[in-house]
Amino acid sequence: MEKDTIRISFDNLEVEAVSVILVPDKAIQEPGYIKTLTASMEAQSKHEFHAMAQMAYYRYQDDELDVVEVSNPMRITRGDEAEAIESGMVIYRDGDGEFHVVIHALLNKKKMLEITNRYCTRWVRLDI
Question: Which sequence spans correspond to the domains of the chain?
Fold first, then answer.
């Protein structure tokens, strides 16, 4: 597996991504648990994550976002790094630039997207 390939496994599926936002359910109380991964860590990466979070949130509000619900843990790997989310959400962008959201079925989709958008917005503003 290439170092710059990010793979997300959930419910017997595996997809490849170029950018990923990992949001465990405990991020509802403490947003500091949100993590980001990208195939190429560049200066504009945080702006990409902000755009991903914002687009996912707005598309969800406009009922234009297909959200995949899962009941099993999600596994994210990049090279020899691996992360598992027992309960939470993953927002990712595939190689074609499309945004996708995978979330555990019992979680509040709107709330999870909202906290992710808020976190990424604050993160970008702190450096401007």
Answer: 6-127
